[in-house]
Amino acid sequence: MPDELAGRSAAELAALVRAKEASAREVVQAHLARIDAVNGDLNAIVTRVDERALAEAEGIDRLAASDRDALPLAGVPFTVKDVIATAGVRTTAGTPVLRDWVPRFDATVVRRLREAGAILIGKTNCPEWAMFPYTRNSLFGETRNPLGPVTVGGSSGGEAAAVASGCSALGVGTDFGGSLRWPAHCAGLFALRPTAGRLPGTGQLPTPSLDEPLIPNEVTLQGRMQVMGPIGRAVADLALALQTMSGADGRDPMAVPTPFTSLDSTTVGGALTWDGPSAPAVHKDVKGVVDLAANSLARTGVALEEMGPAPMLERAVTLYSELRDTDRLQDVRRLTLGRRDELGDDVRAAIDAAEEAERREPNPDRALLWEERDRLRADLLDVLGPDRVLLMAVATVAPYALDGPAPVVDGREQSMWDVLAPSRLISLFGLPAASVPFGSNPDGLPIGVQVVGPSFREDLVLAAARELMEERG
């Protein structure tokens, strides 16, 4: 049994522990043994808390049956991206500036998972300040994809590698421009970017200061649109984690007290695809998988329709970049003031570019950009209606080797930002979106499908993902 536990889903593990068919200690030990076996090669988990995890597991095993049954995530080992605060456990954001920083408080979502019986076993690698769509930094080095010599994505790449390799049963990462969905796409996993405001953002970096609790910056695109969310090996795990983490905490002013609806009562009313000339060009392998998913969903009885022209989506790619540029990396610049020489080359270059842009021209009127964003968002919500999902690519290509030639789509080389265009445009609108592993390219590398829903309809998004997986068999 212990050797099998590291491959089980979070929901399965919790059920085993509640039924006393496995002890929480056995579950944690199995995952720690898996970390011992594979993490040296993967470099996914950069901080371990073995003794604390085993002590918490023993505490769950000592609980009376009724108390244990009340824990929806009893004994489930989970990992957390290293930009999310964990009380008593160092949180470095992958930067030498914070190499020894130990928060006093858990991020709200981490605290809620622990209160539900989940057990933190480690922190996972990310690019410095989670600023890039790869996973390497000067503090810990590079994280490798357990599926082969291709990128594991980023910035939640450490989480993807940990979950895909069986080191962790459930991961918590962040998503600003695709930082959960892209790694899930690269590692053949499920991930959910919740609606902005569904989960409290309290406890994630970067923020204006290290004063705790860490509160998101309301005036930046990142502060308003970066969300925390789950990554796992099953749709049910995402739903279970989301239900546990949801709800306002009284600290993040942007968190909304909206209850999460059970998937059992959710019916997908329709599905849209976007494949017109204005859509981002994607590789034929990716398009094939998205088409396969759309046809599969149609076979379940869901009405399928092509969107046709979608100017709101076309404009979103460039508008995301324009609003992102108005941030001028202000939070990272504050947190690293006077310590620029400790930063990695990529972060220093990004800060230099932001400061040069500031000198060259004042910030554009953010109010006008946000007003345009809100109008475009309203247009998209009108098209989606109350119960339809949008199926599209997560990224323009399958995972590729970062040290090889740039990927090409329709004869054009793709930069790492081009690759993420389909995810970034959805981030701008703050809508819920899942990455669902649905196919592969001729080399056997995974390809995910992005399922997007109306605001606060994560139940609809996950129900569509469940339908897809049941149809796929």
Kindly describe this structure:
This protein has 473 residues and is an alpha/beta fold. The chain folds into two domains: 2-260, Alpha-Beta Complex (Amidase signature (AS) enzymes), CATH 3.90.1300.10; 265-323 and 368-472, Amidase signature (AS) domain (Amidase signature (AS) enzymes), CATH 3.90.1300. The chain has 18 helices and 15 strands. The longest helix has 19 residues, at 24-42. It is globular.
Keywords:
about 475 residues, alpha/beta, Amidase signature (AS) enzymes, 11-stranded mixed sheet, two-stranded antiparallel ribbon, 18 helices, 15 strands, about 40% helix, about 15% strand, globular
Question: What would a concise description of this structure say?
Answer:
Helix content is 40%, strand content 14%. It has 473 residues and is of the alpha/beta class.
Topology at a glance:
Elements: H1 2-5, H2 10-18, H3 24-42, E1 45-48, H4 50-62, H5 65-69, E2 77-81, H6 108-115, E3 119-124, E4 136-137, E5 141-142, H7 157-164, E6 170-175, H8 181-187, E7 190-193, H9 221-225, E8 227-232, H10 235-245, E9 270-273, H11 284-299, E10 304-306, H12 311-327, H13 330-335, H14 345-360, H15 366-384, E11 388-393, E12 408-409, E13 412-413, H16 416-419, H17 421-429, E14 433-440, E15 446-452, H18 458-472
Parallel strand pairs: 2-3, 2-6, 9-10, 9-11
Antiparallel strand pairs: 1-3, 4-5, 6-8, 7-8, 7-14, 11-15, 12-13, 14-15
Helix pairs in contact: 3-4, 7-8, 10-18, 11-18, 12-15, 12-17
